[in-house]
Amino acid sequence: MDAALISTSTKIQITDYRGVTLSACDNNGMENYIHHVQYYETDKMGITHHSNYIRFMEEARMDFFKRIGFDYLEFEKQGIISPVVGMNNIRYKKPSTVGDDLSIAITVKAYNGFVLTIHYVMSKDNQVIFEGDSEHCFLSKEGKILKLSDHTFPELHAKLSELLEISKNQ
Fold first, then answer.
1. What range defines the domain where residue 29 resides?
2. Residue 51 burial (CB < 10 Å; 0-12/13-18/19+)?
3. Which residue of the set 26, 43, 71, 101 is catalytic?
4. Which of 5, 72, 106, 109 gets the most CB atoms within 10 Å of its CB?
5. What is the domain-level CATH number for residue 83?
6. Torsions phi, psi of 83, nearest 5?
């Protein structure tokens, strides 16, 4: 299912891939990440080059981790790296141009301790322009696969599990 925006008198709501309404102002208890499109991110036609949306996903993901209390650089210092292992369900719905402010909502779509799937909905002017998912695994600095659990990085595991439940129950 495609994402859709519903404008109300008090706030903007985003409907995610399951048809669940998420508030653009209160997504998993957090404000959305805002990216201001720069001139260098556009192509000869004057629209944002499609490759930049992947970068915007990464910016929003780094901000997401920081907002949930796990600055990515800090958990790298603790021995976890979390590379992208997949990009799925990428849909470019409408263009953006220089000067646009893109609101990026993130939800935890799936998480099992080994793999985290994050869903992104980007909007501008109350309209969804992009939607997609990124998948991440967890590795030690040495490249060994990690399973986050109550015993291995329990705080991060608990927070991601909590956000997955919130996402499922919305």
1. 4-169
2. exposed
3. 43
4. 106
5. 3.10.129.10
6. -75, 155
Domain count across the chain: 1
Token code pair at residue 14: 């985003």
The closest alpha carbon to 12, from 99, 104, 119, belongs to 104
- Give the containing element (helix H, strand E) for 66: helix 52-67
Catalytic (active site) residue 43: yes
HSE value, Cβ hemisphere, 13 Å, CA-based, for 86 = 10
Residue 96 clears pLDDT 90, i.e. is over it: yes
The CA distance from 134 to 65, in Å, is 14
**Structure-model confidence comparison of residues 29 and 143, the more confident one:** 143
Lowest mean pLDDT among 57-66, 70-79, 142-151, 155-164: 70-79
